[in-house]
Write a structure and sequence with these properties.
Layout lengths: L1 E8 L2 H13 L7 E4 L14 H4 L2 H25 L9 H23 L11 H5 L3 E8 L3 H11 L4 E5 L8
Antiparallel strand pairs: 1-3, 1-4, 2-3
Helix pairs in contact: 3-4
């Protein structure tokens, strides 16, 4: 299981140096992401994806649960109070539950893609001030090693700690 470490870096030049060092430390590029103010040229640094910038993942989960539950309730309602001429069974509950889940995922995913990631709220001021946020997804056993290495070589980098609530990749 991987956990996410956050580092605030003062500029793009230092971000490039740390990125190269992380690659030499055998941290794969796909586990390193950078987030900067709009208009900041990151060059070849891997930029944070939509899933990392927004609350889409959380929204999809909520939509799945709420939509599935709502669809199942509608299915139970149709089961006990069927319209004239319609014969349904428990399969109707299942079908409406699945359709509700699909609709919930679609609707909440569309909405949540535009909502900024709540885990990144504490970094907004620094990012607006021109700093670069680096997110590194690491196995739990390598977190201290990598963190110590970054601080040893780059004392200007400020670690903001691991993500306390969820693993980066469950």
């Amino acid at each position: 299981m991987r956990r996410r470490l956050y580092f605030m870096l003062p500029g793009v030049k230092l971000a490039h140096q740390i990125f190269k060092e992380l690659l030499l430390e055998r941290v794969e590029e796909r586990y390193i992401h950078f987030l900067a103010r709009d208009g900041t040229e990151l060059g070849d640094l891997p930029e944070a994806t939509l899933l990392q910038k927004s609350d889409a993942r959380h929204g999809l989960g909520v939509g799945l649960i709420v939509g599935g539950f709502t669809g199942a309730i509608a299915g139970v309602f149709v089961l006990f109070f069927p319209p004239d001429g319609l014969v349904t069974g428990y399969g109707g509950v299942l079908v409406l539950g699945v359709l509700g889940a699909i609709m919930g995922v679609w609707a909440s995913g569309m909405i949540a893609a535009d909502v900024p990631n709540t885990h990144l709220e504490k970094f907004e001021k620094d990012i607006r001030d021109g700093k670069i946020l680096m997110m590194v997804d690491l196995p739990k056993e390598r977190m201290k090693e990598i963190s110590d290495s970054i601080h040893k070589h780059h004392p200007k980098s400020v670690e903001r700690g691991p993500d306390p609530t969820i693993p980066a990749f469950p």
